[in-house]
Amino acid sequence: MAGGVPGREARRRALVFPLPFQGHIDPMMHLAGALHARGLAVTVLHTRFNALRPARHPEFRFVEVPDGVPADVAAAGRIIDVILAMNAAMEASPAGVRAALASAMLAGGEEEQEAERRPRGAAACLFIDGNLLAVQRVAAALGLPTLVLRTGSAACLRCFLAYPMLHEKGFLPPQESNLYTPVPELPPLRVKDLFFSPVSNHEKVREVLARITESVRNSSGVVINTSEALEAAEMEQLRGELAGDGLPLLLAAGPLHKLSSRSAGSSLLDQDRSCIAWLDTRPPGSVLYASFGSLAAMDPGEFLEVAWGLADSGHPFLWVVRPKLVRGCDSVQLPDGFEDAVKGRGMVIRWAPQQEVLAHRAVGGFWTHGGWNSTLEGVGEGVPMICRPDAVDQMMNARYVQDVWGVGFELEGELERGRIRDAVRRLMEGEEGAEMRERAKVLRRKVADCLESSGSSQIAMDKLVSYILSL
Ligand code: UDX
User: Fold this and answer.
1) Phi, psi at residue 190, to the nearest 5°?
2) Alpha carbon nearest to ligand 1 atom 23, residue
3) Do 88 and 35 belong to one domain?
4) Residue 153: which domain range?
């Protein structure tokens, strides 16, 4: 880990406030770990909804923020609805957020100091998830600079900034007739690859993205969990697109999980580590790891097809079947006869230590929904991928995996066991899969180079820490 910051400045404090969903918590906690490793003190703001477990992070201070998410919205757990409800509640009564922020702005053990005076050791800045505009507004009123962590790709942020234009030009909302139309402003994306949620009202999605854009434009800097090795052109374009906003910083500092390792600590579900011992018994490169992130869901019929497709592939597999993977089912039942059919060859678990699994020598392929964290984790270990995007940014991530980096392919169309069997074999066997594997190894090396001490991601972290210390 490069660049520990000794001396007086090392006691400056950064506050971090992740959006309370797994795919947003993990990168923010990795950023917190990376800042801490460079000598900064860190306070984590968190909500009761999907609360973090402070005992797992003794190196950080924690402050709870009232989230105001109504019980029915929390129980349904739909991300777009939770984001809107949380922001609305915080804007309607900002006093709770203000009190929590004011408390967090003081250094640990120095509660008697006044936040406004910014004593040595008190907070220099607040990192927020781009979805927390309401928190940014309260921070601004307290005179606390905010930086935004974008947990998706640079291409994804470009898509958000372009969203009004995409509507004006008629690309969005998508129509059956224009799905394969290229979007010349955002190559290589087609209409079907743009950020979209089939389960949320489109106007709500527009509102969420407009608010992210506002939080980015109002911020003192943006850190994107990406790498110049993956998205140099997209970063360059973003610099041009945001130039007028006078942002002091726009940094590609990722993959953040490679700068600090604390995934087990921020996991909302308990990781089943028994799969590591199982993987230890398998030959190198033989196992397909199948996992669809923390939110994606499928119909019961699709679930059956996935189960039998994996079974019919003949390959060893490790499959994460988390609660609610099947729409409307809190706990998911495997089909009759499945366990006997895959005995000794297939393992099903509720939640995996994913980064460790992908780094295991036995894993030779990754079937993913293409969430940005999963994509980065697959790329970071040089594992080729089958992408089955479900919603939001996953379609564009799949486009990059297939058409930009060439380290996998998208499984399109109906989920049917024969097509799944063929896709698994395409990835795990034969020439095409071998080529993807080779390209994945090359890409892993390029991403790793950016993480070396003179690499672009480390330089980005150096700039970030210097900037924080200058505040
Ligand atoms: C969501 C969207 O899917 C994603 O596209 C967006 O960028 C962030 O919000 P999620 O669906 O959870 O995230 O997917 P992903 O971004 O891949 O994050 C999932 C995280 O959970 C990964 O860091 C992964 O390592 C972790 N995970 C997943 C586990 O630790 N264990 C598992 O069994 C499965």
Assistant:
1) -110, 170
2) 373
3) yes
4) 8-259+451-470
